[in-house]
Structure formats: structure tokens, C-alpha cells
Design brief:
Blueprint (H helix, E strand, L loop, with lengths): L4 H14 L1 E9 L7 E9 L2 E7 L7 H8 L4 E4 L2 H12 L6 E3 H5 L10 H9 L19 H12 L1 H14 L3 H8 L28 H21 L3 H4 L2 H9 L16 H20 L10 H5 L4 H19 L9 H10 L13 H15 L4 E5 L4 E5 L1
Parallel strand pairs: 1-4, 4-5
Antiparallel strand pairs: 1-2, 2-3, 6-7
């Protein structure tokens, strides 16, 4: 286990010398807003992986330099969550990332495949995943934990090379490199403004406009408080309490009573803040949600049929090319494309950018503009475009 900044610097230098390193994290996320990092794994070719004791490291600057190094590939599996945690730990925005899970979607596999299944499929290697729920903050770590942590990065470079070889056969290396630029967007690692999001509150159901605004304000206050105190959202104010306060609005601060998910102690500490959030919601003092009115302004009775049409085309062309359709976009993104066609600005939609544009985006836009048609290809029995 690496426990000093000097040892960490040596491990990071070894990664830069090789030019590629597998990286993974183990953390605990049960009683805090932010995950608590326990171990960071670094995997090299033909060398035993290095395990960093995150709780012992005070100076992460060597690791920050590694993450920001454009010349060294950092290989992760299902990269987004790990990269967000590592950005918070070391402060550096990641560069030159290779996500083995997402890249698998370009070579005939699922872009959400597990690491265990990917290793088994491509390298015929079986790894044990029995320590997923371990306490990674306990010390010393058990032998089983050490083996589990090392296995997650021991084959990272070999796995990347295997995927790239398959991509080269399919002439898709450039697609992968283009897709991996996604992880270099600094906005991915910046916390969003709670006012600009609709909070996810279980059981909220149908709401009036005023109730919707109150829900947003209570959710925004809860989010800021959870971040500041590093506590889970429901430790601040439960979903049940937010729903109750939203659907049965109190008429003053003193009329707020303890309830499920809102204890007397919490209420005493936060009564005025909860009431202020409710008053703000009632007054409607909130910015509009991004794209909140797009569907109301743009949709018509047939837009859902056009969305299904677009999805059928995307699925057909992806199955024929052995590309995971999930890489193209989700239903929400396809809907935005449909509603914006035919005058959508390519800069405002990722399906019309990069490899997606060449693969299916621009041809789909033509179809949505009434040019060409969709038919069943008798050779593969899949929906395909015809001129």
C-alpha cells in the first residue's frame, strides 16, 4: 500500500514512463453526500498493481499531474463516477481517458458491460467480484480486498489494446478517440446550480405550477445543505417531508410540524430556512429550467411517431454495424433532435457532431426533413435508409 507522497510520486512517474495506466477507485458512500475515497488502484503491464491508501495521502499533487498529463492514457471502466471522485481528491481535470466499458460498444459489445464480463469475453480472464460491498475505509485491508482491488486494474492496458485492435479492424479507432474527448469537458466535474435542476423526489406525482416551484425550492435548499454538511440528502430533509410540505402548504413558519423525515430537532434548527424556501417557491422566484418549454412550444400530435421512427432507424443501422445503439443517444436526446428538425443547429446537438454525425446523425436529419425514406433491407431484415 502506498502511504506517502514520495511513494505516490514514484508510482505516477512509472505510469508516465509506460505511457498508460489502469486506474480504479474503491470508496464508501453511505452516510455522506460525497463518496469517501478509501483506495486508488494503478495498474501497469507486467508489474504488480500499486494500491494507494487514500486516507493516508495528504498531498495529491503527483496524482494531479498524472491525471492532467496529455501524453499518458488513463484507463478506467465506467469512468465517469471514478473521474468525478478523483477530480475532487486531486483537483486536476482529467485528460487522455480511455473508458473500456464505453469503448466496448464500438466493437460489438454492450457499452454498459461489466468489467468481469468484458475480461471474460475479450481476454478469457475470470475475476472474483465478491468484495464489492466491502468496507474500504477499514484498516488493515483483508487479503481478499487486496486481491479484488488489484484485479480491477491488472489487465487494463491489455484490455485497451485488445479493444483498439478490434476497432482498427472495423476502422473505428478515430470514433473511439473522438468519443473519449467527452471526458475532458470541465463542466462534467463542476457541481450544478440546484436552482437549474428539477430535484428527484420520490412520490411527488402530479403537481400544480405553484407546488412544482415549492418542490424545486425545497429541493435546492436541501441540495446546498447536503453539500455544505457532506450529508446524504435525506439526512437533511426526506423525500416524504418535501412531498408533504409541497402538497399541504403551511401558512406560516410556526405551522410546520415534525413529520416523517423531519424530526423535531431538525425542524428547530432549520424552521426559518425551510419556510424561506417555501415562500420563495410560492412567489415563483426561480429561473426557468433549461429546455423546460421546448416540448410545449415545438411538439405536435405526431412527434411521438417521429421519435419512434428515428429510434427504429438508429437501432437498425447500429445492429447492422455492431454498434451499441445506446452510444448514439437516449430517448430524450432523440426527442430533442426530432423536435428541432429540420432546422437544428449541429452545434447544439451531439448526434450531429463528431463520429455520430457521419455514422447516422446527418442521414437521420435528412429523413426527418422528408428526404429519402426508411425501408426493410431484405439482406439483414433491418430498417435502413433508401434514397
Amino acid at each position: 500500500m502506498i502511504t506517502t507522497t514520495r511513494e505516490l510520486s514514484q508510482a505516477c512517474q512509472e505510469a508516465r514512463t509506460v505511457g498508460a495506466v489502469g486506474i480504479d477507485t474503491e470508496f464508501v458512500w453511505s452516510r455522506t453526500y460525497y463518496p469517501t475515497l478509501g483506495v486508488v488502484q494503478m495498474g501497469y503491464p507486467n508489474v504488480k498493481p500499486a494500491l494507494i491508501d487514500a486516507m493516508a495521502i495528504d498531498d495529491w499533487s503527483p496524482f494531479a499531474k498524472l491525471m492532467a498529463d496529455m501524453k499518458t492514457v488513463k484507463i478506467l471502466h465506467d469512468a465517469q463516477q471514478d473521474l468525478t471522485i478523483l477530480k475532487r481528491a486531486c483537483g486536476a481535470f482529467p485528460k487522455n481517458i480511455f473508458d473500456t466499458q464505453r469503448c466496448a460498444g464500438f466493437v460489438g459489445l454492450s457499452s454498459t458491460i461489466s468489467l468481469r464480463d468484458l475480461l471474460k469475453s475479450l481476454l478469457k480472464i475470470r475475476v472474483d467480484k465478491t468484495e464489492t460491498q466491502s468496507d474500504w475505509l477499514a484498516r488493515p485491508l483483508t487479503d481478499a480486498q487486496l486481491v479484488y482491488a488489484a484485479d480491477d486494474v491488472a489487465h487494463s492496458i491489455e484490455l485497451m489494446e485488445h479493444i483498439l485492435k478490434k476497432a482498427d479492424v472495423l476502422e473505428r479507432r478515430d470514433w473511439i478517440l473522438n468519443e473519449m474527448e467527452y471526458y475532458e469537458q470541465e463542466s462534467l466535474y463542476e457541481e450544478s446550480d440546484p436552482d437549474s435542476e428539477m430535484p428527484r423526489v420520490r412520490g411527488s406525482g402530479a403537481l400544480t405550477h405553484k407546488q412544482r416551484n415549492v418542490l424545486r425550492c425545497l429541493g435546492a435548499w436541501r441540495e446546498r445543505s447536503a453539500r455544505r454538511r457532506n450529508l446524504p440528502r435525506n439526512f437533511i430533509l426526506s423525500d416524504d417531508a418535501i412531498v408533504s410540505l409541497t402538497k399541504r402548504l403551511p401558512d406560516c413558519a410556526q405551522s410546520i410540524r415534525p413529520m416523517k423525515g423531519l424530526t423535531e430537532k431538525t425542524l428547530q434548527l432549520n424552521r426559518s430556512k425551510i419556510w424561506a424556501a417555501i415562500e420563495r417557491g410560492v412567489s415563483g422566484d426561480l429561473p426557468e429550467l433549461p429546455n423546460g418549454n421546448a416540448r410545449a412550444v415545438s411538439c405536435d400530435d405526431g412527434y411521438e411517431a417521429r421519435v419512434d421512427f428515428a429510434l427504429a432507424y438508429i437501432k437498425g443501422i447500429c445492429i447492422a454495424a455492431k454498434v451499441d445503439p445506446a452510444l448514439i443517444g437516449n430517448r430524450s436526446e432523440i426527442t430533442a433532435l426530432v423536435l428541432g428538425a429540420p432546422n437544428l443547429n449541429p452545434q447544439n446537438h451531439r448526434i450531429l457532431q463528431g463520429w455520430r454525425a457521419d455514422f447516422c446523425g446527418l442521414s437521420l436529419l435528412k429523413l426527418l426533413s422528408g428526404k429519402g425514406s426508411l425501408s426493410i433491407d431484405p439482406n439483414c431484415n433491418l430498417p435502413m435508409q433508401v434514397d
